[in-house]
Amino acid sequence: SQQGEEDPQALSIQEGENATMNCSYKTSINNLQWYRQNSGRGLVHLILIRSNEREKHSGRLRVTLDTSKKSSSLLITASRAADTASYFCATARSNDYKLSFGAGTTVTVRA
Amino acid sequence: SQTIHQWPATLVQPVGSPLSLECTVEGTSNPNLYWYRQAAGRGLQLLFYSVGIGQISSEVPQNLSASRPQDRQFILSSKKLLLSDSGFYLCACPGQNTGELFFGEGSRLTVL
Known about the structure:
heterodimer, A: mainly beta, 6-stranded mixed beta sheet, about 0% helix, B: mainly beta, 7-stranded mixed beta sheet, globular
């Protein structure tokens, strides 16, 4: 079953702007991950944040995790046309790789 | 680094016909393997996972089955497809860093 829910469902921004999307989940987790999916392609792992971490950075990506609110956010700074994709959060209750995915946020970056 | 091959990439099948989707992994040995399905506009749902040859665990009751005849081969099958089996099927294995999954490019199944 889907544990995570992303918000908003869709986001359209101008190139150079920042994009922020949120993920809420229902049960306790071991870690939370974000993935990107270009149209018709497989998913690509972006970043993993563990339950004892609050913030993590990777290049232009910044992820926060608030376990008290059971929520996470993904920020993409200085967006580019190539960032156009769907972004999914996924939660893991343990280290068994059995991830529960949300329905995703579709991001469109306009040139 | 690992590579996942999935085929066929696209498949259109009539209701009631059989199905076989294949996933082959390179660059890693004895991996855990996973089949996920993505319905249109939705997230991914875990269908099956395997920790080794002949070992299959099903996550949801359904019309599909999985098999692992070889260490790096994972097959998704059905004897009689339903309309609701339409979707994008993704095979995955653990990535290079602990906790992350590495996905293949998927097989898109349309049942008519």
